[in-house]
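FAQ

Q: What does a record look like?
A: Structure on top, sequence underneath. For example:
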């Protein structure tokens, strides 16, 4: 919605207004405004459209997620580095069902830019392993599967990893 610098400017203006309210002896208003300034600061680090796209993906609504991601016009300038990683990660997830070549590019770029959660990184590497396996690159797929297994600390992807290793034995 807003450029990331504008979000910080809005947060600064809200804090200044809160301080002004403190000097005018309106303590309640000042506290409220200082707490309210946390919202633009939070949205500086977590883009609102990426959060909404995650919510749509949770409901398996790929078209809705694409719609929310389409609102981000220029991700290189509008997003912080980690947000760019998640932008590419979400595009990779959506395209993994239809276009393997494009999804591979998006997942590689997401890993390069960085993802903050190990689970997301494990999912990206697992998808890349699947792409490598379909292209008969067994060594690369094995390496990516091992990396995904190390990153999956809660064993949420254990079944998928096991299934992919069984499929690789058949190759």
């Amino acid at each position: 919605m807003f450029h990331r610098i504008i979000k910080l400017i809005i947060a600064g203006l809200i804090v200044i207004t809160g301080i002004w309210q403190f000097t005018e002896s309106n303590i309640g208003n000042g506290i409220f405004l200082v707490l309210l300034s946390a919202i633009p600061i939070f949205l500086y680090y977590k883009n609102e459209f990426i959060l909404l796209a995650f919510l749509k993906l949770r409901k398996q609504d790929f078209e809705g997620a694409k719609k929310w991601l389409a609102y981000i016009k220029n991700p290189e300038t509008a997003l912080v580095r980690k947000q760019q990683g998640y932008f590419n990660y979400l595009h990779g997830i959506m395209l993994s069902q239809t276009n393997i070549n494009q999804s591979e590019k998006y997942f590689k770029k997401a890993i390069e830019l960085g993802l903050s959660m190990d689970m997301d990184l494990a999912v990206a590497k697992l998808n890349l392993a699947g792409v490598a396996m379909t292209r008969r690159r067994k060594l690369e797929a094995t390496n990516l599967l091992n990396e995904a297994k190390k990153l999956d600390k809660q064993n949420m992807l254990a079944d998928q990893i096991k299934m992919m290793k069984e499929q690789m034995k058949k190759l």
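Q: Is there anything notable about this one?
A: The first helix runs from residue 4 to 23.
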